[in-house]
Every structure is written in C-alpha cells, then in structure tokens.
C-alpha cells in the first residue's frame, strides 16, 4: 500500500509542476483562430509531457491506508478510518450519530 500512496504523491507533484504548461498548450490547441501548424506543434509538445502529470491520472486515496474507494474529500481519509478515528475522539467536532 505504501507504494501506491507514494506513486499518488509523485503524480500530484508532477501535476502541480506541469499544470500551467498543460493549460497553456490546451488553450492553443483548441483555439481555432490560430494556424494549424502552431496548433499541431502545441499538440506534439503536449504529448511529450509526462503522462503522470495529467489531472485524470490522480485518484483520491486515503492517506492512512491507501484505499481508493469511499474517501472523504475534506479529511482525505476512507470511511473506515474516519469512523475509527471519530469513535476514538481524535477528530475534533466529529460525533457518532445513531437513531
């Protein structure tokens, strides 16, 4: 699991490095007013960027276990860890409701 967490951290780092460059290249590619050769060159540059720098390669992972499914956005913890930490009283303002 630690390998998956580390891989996700590396992808997030690459994403922040290349985010502005990707955005600039994509705006050039989708701009129909520019000549085709400039747009084509931008497309080639975009394809030469690392794959892991793309935002779609990121996945929400639990920072404690590495679980991908049912991860809470605010805490970045899976529902299982969130419940365990909440029951232990380690999350401030978190209550267990039962009805």
Task: Give a short summary of the structure.
A two-stranded antiparallel sheet has the order 1-2.
Tags for this entry?
99 residues; two-stranded antiparallel sheet; 3 helices; mainly alpha
Give an overview of the whole structure.
With 99 residues, this protein is mostly helical. It contains three helices and two strands, in the order ααββα. It has helices at 2-30, 36-48, 79-88, and strands at residues 71-72, 77-78. It has a two-stranded antiparallel sheet. A hairpin with a 4-residue loop joins β1 (71-72) and β2. The two termini are 35 Å apart.
Largest sheet: 2 strands, antiparallel
Q: What do the pLDDT scores average to?
A: 89
Low-confidence stretches: none
Share of residues in strands:
under 5%
User: Regarding quaternary structure, how should these chains be classified?
Assistant: single chain
Overall geometry: elongated
Number of helices: 3
How are the strands of the largest sheet arranged? 1-2
Estimated helix fraction: 40-55%
Report the radius of gyration as a whole number of Å.
20 Å
Termini separation (Å)? 35 Å
**Number of DSSP strands?**
2
What layout of secondary structure does this protein have?
Layout: H1 2-30, H2 36-48, E1 71-72, E2 77-78, H3 79-88
Helix pairs in contact: 1-2
């Amino acid at each position: 699991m630690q390998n998956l967490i580390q891989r996700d951290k590396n992808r997030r780092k690459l994403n922040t490095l290349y985010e502005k460059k990707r955005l600039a290249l994509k705006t050039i590619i989708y701009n129909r007013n520019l000549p085709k050769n400039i747009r084509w060159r931008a497309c080639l540059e975009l394809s030469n960027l690392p794959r892991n720098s793309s935002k779609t390669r990121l996945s929400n992972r639990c920072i404690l276990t590495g679980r991908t499914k049912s991860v809470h956005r605010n805490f970045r913890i899976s529902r299982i860890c969130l419940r365990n930490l909440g029951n232990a009283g380690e999350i401030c303002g978190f209550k267990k409701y039962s009805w």
